[in-house]
Design goal:
The chain is α+β, with helices and mostly antiparallel strands and 153 residues long. The chain has one domain: Aminopeptidase (3-Layer(aba) Sandwich). It has 5 helices and 7 strands, in the order βαααβββαβαββ. The protein starts with a strand and ends with a strand.
């Protein structure tokens, strides 16, 4: 396993990991309007801007294939996705650990907006729910998620 900072040529790879995961997993948790919201939110333009800011990391398996990604913005873990066929193998935990180390260099608290499928993973890793939020998305649907925090300092 290897985690490296993404560069501009990785925009398509990060988008592919993100969109494939959303398309496969999120329809089991969210209505169509919310899935559409996630796909548009994680556009190539948004990903490219985060890469240019040095915030995006890719996780490679032992065959050097990119299987996951995470974005770190200040003290926040964002855009953490592992391809569906690689879930349940510790890749997500590895990405979270990496993000925690990056954040811990300058912050003592980590924040994450946890989607419904990700929430159990964060709970297992010591994150606490601090707020429940909803946002109206497309087709009158709603996005429900938890703001979670973890002290690391």
């Amino acid at each position: 396993m290897d985690i490296r900072q993404a560069n501009e040529t990785d925009t398509g790879t990060v988008r592919e990991i993100t969109h494939r995961t959303i398309t496969a997993v999120y329809p089991h948790y969210y209505p169509a309007g919310t899935v559409t919201f996630f796909l548009k939110h994680h556009s190539a333009e948004n990903i490219s801007a985060d890469i240019a800011a040095g915030r995006v990391f890719l996780l490679y398996d032992d065959r050097q294939e990119a299987v996951g990604t995470v974005t770190v913005k200040g003290n926040e873990i964002c855009r953490l996705f592992v391809l569906p066929e690689f879930q349940g193998q510790g890749f997500g935990k590895e990405l979270i650990g990496y993000a925690e180390t990056e954040i811990g260099r300058n912050h003592s608290e980590i924040t994450v907006d946890a989607s419904l499928p990700a929430k159990p993973v964060y709970l297992k890793l010591g994150y606490k729910e601090t707020e429940f939020r909803t946002e109206k998305t497309y087709f009158g649907d709603h996005l429900c998620y938890d703001v979670m925090k973890k002290n690391i300092g």
